[in-house]
Amino acid sequence: MSFLAIDIGNTRLKWALYAAPQPGAAVLAQGAAFLETIDELADSQWRGLQPPRSMLGCNVAGDAVRRRVEEQLELWDLTPRWAVSNARDGGVRNGYDHPGRLGADRWVALIGAWAHAQARGVDGPVLVVMVGTAVTVDALDGEGRFLGGLILPGHGIMLRALESGTAGLHVPTGEVRDFPTNTSDALTSGGTFAITGAIEHMHRRLQRHCGRSPIMLMTGGAGWKVAPYLDIQHELVDSLIFDGLLALQAHRLAL
Ligand SMILES: Nc1ncnc2c1ncn2[C@@H]1O[C@H](COP(=O)(O)OP(=O)(O)OP(=O)(O)O)[C@@H](O)[C@H]1O
Ligand SMILES: CC(C)(CO)[C@@H](O)C(=O)NCCC(=O)O
Ligand SMILES: [K+]
């Protein structure tokens, strides 16, 4: 019954093997690999794994990367399946102008977030934040409608853009300070507060739109770096995309 969930991001592939395609299933194994090293998965991390019976992935890195991962999946006898953004799934309705153009990672994370909210009996709005190579801040209303969301550059891209777009800025890592008094701290703090500022802005907007304070779920490799500087209540859920993939797979099996 084991189920392999794969999240191919802009920088890294993350995978988790679950005992069953059901929300809350036990994790049997998990790992991550930079996209440059994915051609070794079958010979390294995946070698010796208990063969998964099914898989569902989520990919924002393009068709070439997907095909490379499918080659690695030939290690096992399974049909690769990839989540695509559509008009509704997993209890979420997609409000994007062109639903299919919404990043699959955002769609799957929204479905994972909705599953979390349902499991806890939350019936108000949910703000879904992913902090990685890019940052996304997506709004779900209390009925599971995706209202829309923000895309902004991640911390790394912001700093590299400043470094390449100015003559005099070089970017050694600094500390986050309220009132930075050197260039490194000013850059690191600027990047961090650009992200927290966008999140807090969307939180206010969603609260105003729905007339209720949203819960906020945050995920992505750098979520823990941003979390300490957020002035609003939030919860880090590292597995949000995997939880979305589990919810989708369970949903599909139930149909
Ligand atoms: N102090 C920081 N604050 C916010 N973000 C940061 C910080 N330091 C690094 N980052 C971001 O973290 C990213 C790397 O994190 P990681 O590779 O774990 O993300 P990820 O969720 O796996 O990304 P993706 O899914 O896009 O591949 C960098 O691209 C950078 O933008
Ligand atoms: C925004 C990113 C890069 C975040 O990973 C990804 O979701 C993506 O490539 N999205 C497609 C464009 C969109 O979501 O509108
Ligand atoms: K991601």
Structure description:
With 255 residues, the chain is of the alpha/beta class. It folds into two domains: 3-82, 2-Layer Sandwich (Nucleotidyltransferase, domain 5); 105-245, Nucleotidyltransferase, domain 5, CATH 3.30.420. Helices cover 33% and strands 24% of the residues. The chain has six helices and eleven strands. Strands 5-6-9-8-7-10-11 form a seven-stranded mixed beta sheet, sandwiched between helices. Helix 3 (155-165) crosses helix 4 (183-210). The longest helix is centred in the C-terminal third of the chain and has 28 residues, at 183-210. The chain is globular and about 55 Å long. The chain starts with a strand and ends with a helix. The structure holds adenosine-5'-triphosphate, pantothenoic acid and potassium ion (K). The site of potassium ion has 5 residues, from loops. Pathway: Cofactor biosynthesis; coenzyme A biosynthesis; CoA from (R)-pantothenate: step 1/5. This is Type III pantothenate kinase. Its main location: cytoplasm. InterPro entries: ATPase_NBD, Type_III_PanK. It is found in: Cytoplasm.
Largest sheet: 7 strands, mixed
Mean residue pLDDT = 96
Using only C-alpha atoms, the radius of gyration works out to 19 Å
**CATH homologous superfamily assignment of the largest domain:** ATPase, nucleotide binding domain
The name of the CATH topology of the largest domain is: Nucleotidyltransferase, domain 5
Query: Could you tell me the strand content as a percent range?
Result: 15-25%
Judged by helices, strands and strand pairing, the structural class is alpha/beta
Number of discrete domains: 2
